[in-house]
Structures are given as C-alpha cells and as structure tokens.
Amino acid sequence: MPAEPKFVPLQFLEYTHDEMLLRSQEFQSEMERRRTVRDFADRPVKEEILRNAIKTAGTAPSGAHKQPWTFILVGNPETKARIRQAAEAEEKESYERRMPQEWLDDLAPLGTDWRKPFLTICPWLIVVMAQTYAATPRGLAKHYYVQESVGIATGFLLAALHHAGLATLTHTPSPMAFLRDILGRPEEERVFLLVAAGYPAPGCEVPDLVRKPLERILVVR
Ligand code: IYR
C-alpha cells in the first residue's frame, strides 16, 4: 500500500543578493583550495569529525529518497593493513598488465603507481558502498538512480571533509570486490569508491594541475 504523503514546513534561510554573492564567492574559494592528496601524515584525527562528515553525506538527495548508501569507516590498523595488501595486489596486476598504455600515459602527470601506502598511513578510510537494492524482511525492494545518488553523496562527503580541514584522496582499486569481503558487507552492496582522509604529510606536494576555466565548463543558453 502506498504511504500517504505527509508535508512539513520548509526550513529556508533567505539571504540578500549581496549576501548570496559573498557566500557563493567564499564557498568557491574554499572549494578551489581542495586538492587530491596522495602523501598523508599518520597523525590521528578525532572520529567525531569523520562521523559529522558522513552525516553531511547522508543529507544528499537520492532516487525516491531510498538513501542507497552505506559508509564504512575504517580506523582499525589490522583492517587497513588487509585492505592495503589486497588493494596493492590488484593494483600491481592492473598497472603491470591490465591497464592499456593510453591509460598509463594519462596517469603519468599524477605520479600514481601500484603502491598505496596511504591505505595504512591515513588515520581513516571511508569505503562508500552503493546499495543496488534493499534487502527488507519482506524481500527485495528496488532502489533508483543508485550511481547518481551515491555519487552526489560522495561529493557532499568530500566537501564536508575538506571544509572540516582534512585532506582526502578518492581511490578506486580495481576490481574492488575484495573490500566487500574484508569488510563483511552483504551481497546487495557494491563498493562505489574509497576515500582516505587525514592530514597531508609535512612538505606534501601535489601535481601542478590547472582547472578548466568557467568559459570551458559553462554553456549559457
Ligand atoms: N585505480 C588506480 C588507477 C587510477 C585511475 C585513475 I582514472 C586515476 O585518476 C587515478 C588512479 C589507482 O588508484 O592508482
């Protein structure tokens, strides 16, 4: 039986045009400083900061409000070591045999290789899982636009972690199924990606990348 719609008043904060302009500029500057970091410090970070960021990720819109995501927060050193060992085994195979030359050439400016020391150095890993369907006591239930929904939630997560003052790295070991086994997750969940979060290593450097200017990413009609 379909649920009766129930509506509540929207909590909306209205700003003046000047305030909106300033807020949009300030947020843009803050996000402009975000960089993907591959060189982390092993300094600890309080779990509550990660929990708050994951709570923010959970505010993302989703298909039919099914919220088809699970965030696995990994801080346990043994679990991180198992993840690193399995990820490096897959990545070694990928970098040495599976990835075509064009792909390797495209990654060359980023300086990546199969070694993933951040998986044990970082205080926290967040494995983002996408629930392809819901396993309910009454059987399987559908989820909608799962990739889109989990992608948006992951964007919120990265923005929240950056806003909190943490460096992040999105990592997609390929194939990623080993993570579901190590983390003991159910069949209906698929690994979406892994986010490493922590402080950058002292003297950390990042690739000298240029972002496309607005004129190249915006079309006004
Ligand atoms: N999954 C590998 C390779 C990799 C692929 C892309 I596309 C990147 O932007 C970065 C890395 C890895 O994590 O090294």
Describe the fold and architecture.
- The protein has 221 residues and is α+β, with helices and mostly antiparallel strands.
- The protein is 41% helix and 17% strand.
- Strands 1-2-6-5 form a 4-stranded antiparallel β-sheet, with helices on both faces. A two-stranded antiparallel ribbon has the order 3-4.
- Helix 2 runs antiparallel to helix 6 and helix 3 runs antiparallel to helix 7 (177-183).
- The longest helix is centred in the middle third of the chain and has 22 residues, at 77-98.
- The mean pLDDT is 96.
- Bound molecules: 3-iodo-tyrosine.
- 3-iodo-tyrosine binds next to loops.
What's the short story on this structure?
The protein is of the alpha+beta class. It is built from eight helices and six strands.
SSE layout and pairing:
Layout: H1 17-32, H2 47-57, E1 69-74, H3 77-98, H4 101-107, H5 118-121, E2 124-131, E3 133-136, E4 139-142, H6 146-164, E5 167-171, H7 177-183, E6 189-198, H8 214-217
Antiparallel strand pairs: 1-2, 2-6, 3-4, 5-6
Helix pairs in contact: 2-6, 3-7
The structure holds 3-iodo-tyrosine.
The site of 3-iodo-tyrosine (IYR) has 7 residues, from loops.
Structural key phrases:
single chain, 17% strand, binds 3-iodo-tyrosine, 221 residues, alpha+beta, two-stranded antiparallel ribbon, 4-stranded antiparallel sheet
